[in-house]
């Protein structure tokens, strides 16, 4: 099992340490071996946390995809509460002396439990758009069951 150090810049004030620990375990990502949640108050006087977490990754496809994505994109978004549409922005933890003002990538993977199992996102996107045909308002045909039918 591999360990990884991550940083979550914002966690809702209502979320407890035990919920964070259980989320990573439940999503088959890993076991939290260390968590340091620091409380802060935002400009609207609402409590929130930021957290430094050490994860011992499980030997699963989900944890491998999590690890690969975070190393590739330096940040991912993980949907931890699908019903309330709540997610965490997760970054690799870097020491203060190693940090630079690097512009963040705007195209960041967004995962939930079911999508962490995917193996090759680029291939899936190619397959999805293989039969894509751009809309043309002057087109008078319609595709039904894989065949074009004139209207």
Low-confidence runs: none
CATH architecture: 2-Layer Sandwich
| Class from helix and strand fractions | alpha+beta
**Average pLDDT for all residues:** 79
CATH topology: Alpha-Beta Plaits
Spatial separation of the terminal alpha carbons: 60 Å
Rg over CA atoms: 20 Å
Question: Can you give a write-up of this model?
Answer:
This protein is an alpha+beta fold and 151 residues long. It has one domain (3-94, 105-118): RRM (RNA recognition motif) domain (Alpha-Beta Plaits), CATH 3.30.70. Helices cover 21% and strands 38% of the residues. The chain is built from three helices and eight strands, in the order E-H-E-E-H-E-E-E-H-E-E. A six-stranded mixed sheet has the order 2-3-1-5-4-6, with helices on one face. The longest helix is centred in the middle third of the chain and has 13 residues, at 61-73.
List its traits.
Alpha-Beta Plaits, globular, alpha+beta, about 150 residues, two-stranded antiparallel sheet
SSE order and pairing:
Elements: E1 3-12, H1 17-26, E2 30-41, E3 47-57, H2 61-73, E4 75-81, E5 86-92, E6 110-111, H3 121-128, E7 141-144, E8 147-150
Parallel strand pairs: 4-6
Antiparallel strand pairs: 1-3, 1-5, 2-3, 4-5, 7-8
Structure, briefly:
The chain has 3 helices and 8 strands, in the order E-H-E-E-H-E-E-E-H-E-E. It has helices spanning 17-26, 61-73, 121-128, and strands spanning 3-12, 30-41, 47-57, 75-81, 86-92, 110-111, 141-144, 147-150.
């Amino acid at each position: 099992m591999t360990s990884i150090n991550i940083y979550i810049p914002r966690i809702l004030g209502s979320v407890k340490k035990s919920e964070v620990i259980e989320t990573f375990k439940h999503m088959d990502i890993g076991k939290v071996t260390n968590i340091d949640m620091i409380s802060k108050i935002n400009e609207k006087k609402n409590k929130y946390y930021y957290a430094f977490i050490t994860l011992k990754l499980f030997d699963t496809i989900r944890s491998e995809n999590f690890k690969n994505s975070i190393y590739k994109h330096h940040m991912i978004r993980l949907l931890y509460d699908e019903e309330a549409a709540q997610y965490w922005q997760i970054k690799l933890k870097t020491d203060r002396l190693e940090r630079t003002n690097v512009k963040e990538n705007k195209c960041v993977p967004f995962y939930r439990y079911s999508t962490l199992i995917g193996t090759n996102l680029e291939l899936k996107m190619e397959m999805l758009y293989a039969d894509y045909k751009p809309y043309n308002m002057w087109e008078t045909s319609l595709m039904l069951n894989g065949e074009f039918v004139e209207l």
